[in-house]
Amino acid sequence: MSKAEILIIDDEPQIRKLLEITLESNDYKVWQADTGASGIIMAANHPPELILLDIGLPDKSGHEILKELRTWYNKSIIMLSVQNNETDIVSALDNGATDYLCKPFRSAELLARIRSSIRRNQMPNADFNLVCGNIEIDLTARVVTLNNTTLKLTATEYNLLVLLAKNEGRVLTHQYILKEIWGYGAQNETQYLRVFIGTLRKKIEPNANEPKHIYTESGVGYRFI
Question: Which of 11, 88, 167, 194 is the one with CA 20 to 30 A from 128?
Fold first, then answer.
């Protein structure tokens, strides 16, 4: 089996070296670029399975590079930044980032995010059964089972669960979820979303107060594990 290829776009040599060592020791093939422009050229000439994109680049911001890449590149992009800023994070995710990590980050967390992102790249587009631990979603029959017991979900709860599960491991912003489930007019109704997340947690979590599947990313959105 060929190695998954990852492109690092970051202007800090020390960070690129650290990432290179971490990734190659975990059987990934690594390409590197130190500017946004060179990164776009490399990605176009040899599209990787995943891109690690720094926000603070010398020629253009990572946000601008992200927007350019998203006009044609449809695989995973994980943003890297020293800024732990909600506005920055939400902007990156809304503009198409698959995930977002703040520096310094733990290697184990980075590798977990990469594995999750690459799994999503390899999912077929056709309907199939989604299996998430003890939860199984039959997308054709629109049936959800938990520990082989069928759950009674409302149409909205079902659609919300499917959206989260299809993006397993990825942070979905409040605005993105609201737009996808309720349409553009509901993008500011975060309290409305919070209520439905609460009812869904009661049905799929062993303990809704200590969720194991639907995690809250404070001020940003939700991540399904």
Answer: 194
Segment 135-153, tens digit of pLDDT: 999 888 888 999 989 999 8
CATH number at residue 43: 3.40.50.2300
Q: Is the pLDDT of residue 85 over 90?
A: no
Same domain, 115 and 13: yes
Q: Kindly state whether residues 108 and 211 are assigned to the same domain.
A: no
For strands 76-81 and 99-102, give the pairing. Answer: parallel
Query: Which pTM does this prediction carry?
Result: 0.70
- State how beta strands 76-81 and 5-9 pair: unpaired
**Most confidently modeled of 19-33, 114-128, 164-178?**
19-33
pLDDT for 126 = 46
Q: What share of the chain is helix, strand, coil (3-state, %, to 5)?
A: 40, 20, 35
CB 190 within 8 A of CB 182: no
**Burial class of 15 by CB neighbour count within 10 A (0 to 12, 13 to 18, 19+):** middle
